Amino acid sequence: MIQQHNFGRLMRFCGAVLLGMMLAVPMFAQEEEEANDGKPKIRALGVEANGVEVPVVQIRVDEFLSRQIHPLLNYIFFDDNSAAIPERYVKMTDVSAETFRPERLYGKETLEVYYDVLNVIGYRLKTSTETITITGCNANVGPEKGNKDLSMKRAQAVKDYFQNVWKIDPARLNVQSRDLPEKASNSKESPLEAEAENRRVEIAGAWSVIQPVFIQDTLREATPPIIRFYSKVDTKDETPQQWSIAIKQRQKPLRNPISAGGNIRPVVDWKINKEKNTIPLDTLPMTYELEVRYPTLPNLRSKRMSVPVQQITIQRKKRERANDVEKDRYSMILFPFGSSKVEEGNAKIVEFIKSEKRLKPESIVVITGYTDIIGTDQANLKISTDRAKAVQASLGLDKAGAVREIKVEGRGKQKPLLYENNELPEARFYCRTVVVEVKNPASDD
């Protein structure tokens, strides 16, 4: 019996080693023995939230009842020595503004919601009698040094938008200028990034005007959250003019093709949960294929590949009496650079979470602190952890038994960052935050 037991253990060990060797084989090694037909090759793997690659057996789409809070950064950032509102901000006409509603921003990431900040605030001003103060600032270096005239032009550009598009009485729009912001960014390690953060207009007003965007709806999440495409094409006599990966369901595009000019990128990530409108809505398989176009040679197309899709709807969970949950996601108002103090804006969100009575003895809570890319790994890990613990204490969750389960961590500069494009000042600001995720058993109603 002992020998049989040991033999079984040995076989399981060998099987595990063999599986590990198979996973370590390059993505297309199994095709090396196949006839070389000259066609491009493409395969997909899943990437879990922790960055680990897994075989894509299927894409699972889960529906949850969800409440979300998107903090609204009340700053508009400007290009160097410019007073024009950058194109990345969503700007409307006075006609399109008439149909705008903040709740229509559901399904967008927090940073996407931010780019509608002028319209969210414009809508709130139009539906209230509040006044705001618009303060133009400059970086106070180079051509912007002491240039309060530039600061005033920036503030005036924002005022003009509210006045001309949202038809706000100019008497409710107080404009002023200064050089550096009152709470200026100042980093010896990244002075250029600090300058970009100081080239801004600040909008101050009542909490009802600058408060976060609150959205309640059905949340859809895909597992795995990232699909990683591995592609290759045999070398030709000329460089490709363009390559593209088409992703479809029911022969209709799920998203715009992933494409670029020149040689193909061997590894491309599709972050499904970051692009809510691309999450599959059907149970038919998702298909993908690689096409390579050349200037003079014939275009080449890979074999069309597919991945099964499973939809777990709220209705299905109720029919099957599944252990469904409701998910709440609260992003704190953004912390100042290097700070972990829960200041006024954050304190209001903390009180909102408490007032909603979403924190229950049966809740599962995850509190995650984040930072931007600036600073050392050690310093950023500490500040992100301090932020998470400060929010935990403010919520009263530092006491044993407050909830069923709680996880509190700081991620520092660990990748992926909350928002990876830290070249933009707003992305860095939005990384200086804490995200509180709460899971509760779904109610029957």
Structural commentary:
With 445 residues, the protein is α+β, with helices and mostly antiparallel strands. It folds into three domains: 35-63 and 219-313, Macroglobulin (MG2) domain (Immunoglobulin-like, Sandwich); 72-211, OmpA-like domain (60s Ribosomal Protein L30, Chain: A, 2-Layer Sandwich); 323-441, 2-Layer Sandwich (60s Ribosomal Protein L30, Chain: A), CATH 3.30.1330. The chain is built from ten helices and 21 strands. It has helices at 2-24, 110-114, 117-126, 148-164, 191-198, 207-210, 314-319, 344-355, 377-394, 425-431, and strands spanning 41-47, 53-55, 59-70, 75-77, 132-136, 173-177, 200-205, 213-223, 226-232, 242-249, 252-253, 258-261, 267-271, 286-293, 300-301, 305-307, 309-312, 325-331, 364-369, 405-410, 434-441. The strands form four sheets. Strands 3, 8, 17, 18, 19, 20 and 21 form a seven-stranded mixed β-sheet that branches. The radius of gyration is 26 Å and the shape is globular. The termini are far apart. The model is unreliable at 1-26 and 28-35 (pLDDT under 50).
